[in-house]
């Protein structure tokens, strides 16, 4: 089958690889759409630096089940499904507590198992969900990471609710989804991004206001007075963004950090007073759960979460798409179509 591989020399290769066979509790999915996430660029750099083995990436996946293992009871050939890339073991301490995103015994499609930049992918039956018939697989694919991650950050960890003030730092693909999740929670949203086009996309996605980083404090005061933010969701992860997010938090506010950007290895001093005064909390968000994925799909079905797919390309165009993503030329999400010549 055709696939994209990240090679050790840093090349992005369009090649043939063996089609996988499903295990007893797995399904074989024909990939109809695979979202392109900025994390894929980090993976490419890790492969090139020798920190990760060559791989077939892709962790935003929608497709059609074509074959099932002998113990599968949760799906049938022909079902159109979204695939959650986390493949947890199902029995460790975190899995038993339904924190499957923290499972350390499982695998992750596109990270340490073959991902969706291919014509077919194998997944555990417990990690695929049926898609509503009127939801385009191209849109659905992006929900596997950007939609589910946004829900995990804003609703599960951030606990945004009616009348909350949510600040979204970085209006990329996940940030735009986070804005919509926050609006679905009936919160006010301030989006922060240095790019004018991204700020416009944020407003189109439902943000109450959008500002460049140096105007963020003023914009938040205009929205929330001196109360500050209830939730700051940082999708950039630089020291500058972390310092800014911390300064924007109000009493009881939660800073939820998603990305590891440049400079995050530099220490940022946090004192007990920073945490205790006003009951502020600093949280790290890692991936998402199948429950977050299900809720993202439900929001999309209801029209409250509309993935912003601005580019659709055949699988062979992955090198140019990733290049444009790294250059900051893609607003929203690009999606690869493995079945398109």
Q: Could you walk me through the main structural features you see in this protein, from its secondary elements to its overall organization?
A:
This protein has 341 residues and is of the alpha/beta class. The protein has two domains: 2-130 and 308-337, Quinone Oxidoreductase, Chain A, domain 1 (Alpha-Beta Complex), CATH 3.90.180; 150-284, Rossmann fold (3-Layer(aba) Sandwich), CATH 3.40.50. The protein is 30% helix and 26% strand. It contains ten helices and 17 strands. The chain has helices at residues 38-49, 93-96, 137-157, 173-184, 196-204, 216-224, 239-248, 272-276, 290-302, 318-326, and strands at 2-6, 12-16, 26-36, 60-68, 80-83, 86-87, 107-108, 120-124, 128-130, 165-169, 188-192, 209-211, 229-234, 249-257, 281-284, 309-314, 333-337. The strands form four sheets. Strands 3, 4, 5, 8, 9, 16 and 17 form a seven-stranded mixed sheet that branches. The chain has a six-stranded parallel sheet with strand order 12-11-10-13-14-15, sandwiched between helices. It has a two-stranded antiparallel sheet with strand order 1-2. Helix 3 packs across helix 4 (173-184) and helix 3 crosses helix 9. The protein is globular.
